[in-house]
């Protein structure tokens, strides 16, 4: 639900703009407002799960998300829709961390990778389904609802998920009831706002001075928040950021790789939608269908990738990244050759991404202790959303600047080149993590051999 609603607005934006008379800034807030509250609330959502229980927070989150979705569908003007989207993002922040936290707490390390693989497959499929089903729903104009149906469809989903989750999800007792670090949570939210709001609105407003001032101001805000985390920990308190996680090298490397991946993936989906509809003249439905083969390949390879990684290790993730890089390279050189080249590139990207994303999540969480599952998942999810929003804003700005005068194909080449560079960063970070793992294995074998 959360990933679907993050991406589905891409294809619905023209209809929302026409129906509600929403300007560019309002559209940016409709998309970016959700991303901001979603990202800003993730870590606190993870902490709340540690305190009150993952199942309880998940049920609360799904309930609130369903209500917010209905409010989005009933919005009569851009202000109401922006407000409902902000609420929807907060609800998603309460809901999503509990899924990974439950997986981390319930499954032992040897089984966790497979479970996380399923989670990654569903999340990635939800992202692509936002493009595909969004176009289908808009074209079908269900009950004459137009764009509103993309939000109202969450009502029957929520009515089914809430009772099932309350009945079937396991109760996980973390043994910890951390007090909420309200100053830390407020500092993180303020810092994220000072970055994400200017990034979201800057391009449509022509990057006024206040956008640069806000982004510069985020640096001392983050620094003060970081300092407060250490002060609170020294006093014996429980900061919103679990500083012990910084000692888990696999977690840090995994988060770094996921940041690079999500910056590329979110911007890729955004800019390619603009190319298909604006540059090639496809309808929302046709543009959505163009993503369908990519989604199918992503799902198949993400499930297969879990088994392959268990057998062959992180080299599989590096191979997947290389395949995705080939697809992006094809876009760089072939965007002007029409839809067949673009479809070939999409299939390569979908195939490669399926071998990468779920395995990155699993590798990040494999050494996280069960009592850290909530906050670990919250930080990971925050990093994903922050990277996605930043990637869309920065690479989207490059696309818009290069697309002036109807040069969408040239703009796609530039944005795909940046995405390609980010994928190469992912491959490099995975290679580093793999080399560390191999050194640890060799060291362990040497110690065992030396023991009489």
UniProtKB/TrEMBL annotation:
Q: How does it sit in the membrane?
A: Multi-pass membrane protein
Domain spans labelled Major facilitator superfamily (MFS) profile: 1-434
Annotated TM spans: 25-45, 57-76, 82-106, 118-139, 145-170, 182-201, 207-228, 248-272, 284-305, 312-333, 339-366, 378-402, 414-432
Query: Taking the first listed entry, what is the main subcellular location of this protein, grouped into a coarse class?
Result: membrane
Of the GO CC terms on this record, one is: plasma membrane
Annotated InterPro entries? MFS, MFS_dom, MFS_trans_sf
Asked if Membrane is a keyword of the record, the answer is yes
Q: Which Gene3D superfamilies match?
A: MFS general substrate transporter like domains, Multidrug resistance protein D
Cell compartment(s), UniProt: Cell membrane
Q: Which GO terms describe its molecular function?
A: transmembrane transporter activity
Q: Cross-referenced PANTHER family, in alphabetical order?
A: ACTINORHODIN TRANSPORTER-RELATED, MAJOR FACILITATOR SUPERFAMILY MULTIDRUG TRANSPORTER MFSC
The name on file for this protein is: MFS transporter
Give the originating organism. Nonomuraea zeae
């Amino acid at each position: 639900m959360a990933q679907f609603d993050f991406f589905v607005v891409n294809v619905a934006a023209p209809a929302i703009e026409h129906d509600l008379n929403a300007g560019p800034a309002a559209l940016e807030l409709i998309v970016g407002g959700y991303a901001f509250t979603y990202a800003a609330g993730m870590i606190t959502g993870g902490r709340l799960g540690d305190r009150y229980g993952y199942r309880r927070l998940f049920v609360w989150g799904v309930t609130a998300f369903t209500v917010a979705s209905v409010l989005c569908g009933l919005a009569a003007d851009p202000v109401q829709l922006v407000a409902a989207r902000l609420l929807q993002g907060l609800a998603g922040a309460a809901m999503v961390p509990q899924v990974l936290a439950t997986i981390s707490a319930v499954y032992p390390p040897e089984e966790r990778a497979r479970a996380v693989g399923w989670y990654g497959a569903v999340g990635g499929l939800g992202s692509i389904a936002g493009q595909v089903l969004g176009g289908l729903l808009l074209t079908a104009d269900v009950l004459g609802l137009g764009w509103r149906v993309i939000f109202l469809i969450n009502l029957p989903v929520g009515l089914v998920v809430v009772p099932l989750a309350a009945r079937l999800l396991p109760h996980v007792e973390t043994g910890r009831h951390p007090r909420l670090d309200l100053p830390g949570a407020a500092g993180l939210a303020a810092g994220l706002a000072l970055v994400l709001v200017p990034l979201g609105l800057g391009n449509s407003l022509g990057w006024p001075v206040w956008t640069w001032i806000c982004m510069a101001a985020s640096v001392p805000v983050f620094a003060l928040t970081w300092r407060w985390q250490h002060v609170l920990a020294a006093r014996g308190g429980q900061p919103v950021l679990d500083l012990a996680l910084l000692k888990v090298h696999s977690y840090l490397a995994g988060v770094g790789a996921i940041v690079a991946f999500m910056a590329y993936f979110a911007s890729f989906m955004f800019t390619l939608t603009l190319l298909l509809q604006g540059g090639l003249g496809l309808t929302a439905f046709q543009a959505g269908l163009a993503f369908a083969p990519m989604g199918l390949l992503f799902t198949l390879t993400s499930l297969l990738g879990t088994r392959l990684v268990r057998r062959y290790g992180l080299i599989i993730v590096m191979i997947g990244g290389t395949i995705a890089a080939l697809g992006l390279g094809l876009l760089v050189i072939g965007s002007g050759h029409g839809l067949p080249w673009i479809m070939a590139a999409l299939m390569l990207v979908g195939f490669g991404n399926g071998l990468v994303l779920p395995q990155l999540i699993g590798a990040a969480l494999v050494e996280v202790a069960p009592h850290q599952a909530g906050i670990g998942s919250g930080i990971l999810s925050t990093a994903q959303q922050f990277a996605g929003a930043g990637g869309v804003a920065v690479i989207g700005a490059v696309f818009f600047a290069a697309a002036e005068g109807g040069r969408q194909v040239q703009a796609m080449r530039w944005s795909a080149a940046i995405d390609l560079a980010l994928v190469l960063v992912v491959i490099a970070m995975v290679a580093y993590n793999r080399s560390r793992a191999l050194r640890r294995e060799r060291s362990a074998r040497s110690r065992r051999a030396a023991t009489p």
